[in-house]
Amino acid sequence: MSPFQRLAQQMQDILGDGGILKEVIQAGEGSPVPRDASVSIHFSAYLEYSDQPFETTSYLKYPRMMKLGRDVTLYGLEVGVLTMKKGEFSRFLFLPKYAYGEFGCPPLIPPSATVLYEVQILDYLDSAEVDHFFALTPEEQNTVPLSTVLNVVKTQRCFGNRCFNQSRYEDAKDRYKQALTLLKNRESANEEEGRSIAAMQLPVFLNLSLTLLRLQRPLKALRYGQRALEVDPHNTKALFRCGQACLEMDDYEKAQDFLLMAQANKPFNTDINNMLKKLASCYKGFMDKEKEMCSKMFPHFHASSKK
Q1: Do the beta carbons of residue 20 and residue 98 sit within 8 Å?
Q2: Helix (DSSP H) and strand (DSSP E) numbers for the chain
Q3: Which of 49-63, 203-217, 286-300 has the highest mean pLDDT?
Q4: How do strand 12-13 and strand 85-86 relate by DSSP bridges?
Q5: CA distances from 59 to 63, 162, 204, 235, 283 (A)
């Protein structure tokens, strides 16, 4: 009996035809991956009698999100992923008709090869609503319920947050800006809708401000922080972001104003207090350099002042 035949004895038949067999190694949590989701997975693929994978994502710290039905090209893998939950780690055996077919994929995959895939679901986002929304014309987008628009914006923000957490700041910025564009283009039917749109804009402004700080673009970070303050003038995070941005631009007076207002809201916040200490240190260093420069420019005046 071959290794794959022995493994198959302890696996579950997913479709009933023996073409896709599954063994759960570590159970996941929540609901199975939705059909139109974007997924982030780790996988390694093996041929029989081979200890080395012919394809793997194990070297990637953060595998990219893949859209089911578009980016996952192996039919068996897509079917298998749809049976999995977040955090799950499973093994799959795919017969040729669910993998690389009778011709294989030379030179890596021989003809009519059964393949083993080890798959882990790292994360997924149900992006069906987003896909449907972006397929509409701008005029049609304005006719859908506001709740749908807000859900699309939330999903785009989730994509942005995921990119940010992976230090992919340019990608995060693009997702956040796309979310803001959707909100900007939405015509509010009444004051209540206007308030809902503004409330959704606030966290995106804050996300963009922080992202632009990471990208070392403090002027743009300040602008988005100020836009957040237009929505909520006393927002501590917005005041803190503006203070950070001003400090990055060596505008010590404005930095102090913003940070002191943030501190007034949260006197014991460690980040705010540490930033104020950094401000004091930077300002002292700036003044010391000013004094040194003046002493070099006016050495006689500096010498006489010591007498």
Answers
A1: yes
A2: 12, 9
A3: 203-217
A4: unpaired
A5: 9, 19, 32, 41, 44
